[in-house]
Amino acid sequence: MTELKEEIENLKRKRNALILAHNYQLDEVQEVADYVGDSFYLSKVAAKIESDGIVFCGVRFMAETAKILSPDKVVLLPEIDAGCPLADTITAENVRELKSRHPGVPVVCYVNSSVEVKAESDICCTSANAVKVVASLPGSKVIFIPDENLGDYVAKQLPDKELILWQGCCVTHAKVKAENVTQVRQRYPEAKILIHPECIPAVVKLADFVGSTSEIIRYVENSPAEVFVIGTEVGVLCKLRTVCPEKQFILLHSGLVCPNMKKTRQQSIYDALLNNRYEINVDETVAEKARHTLTLMLELA
Question: Which pTM was predicted?
Answer without folding.
Answer: 0.93
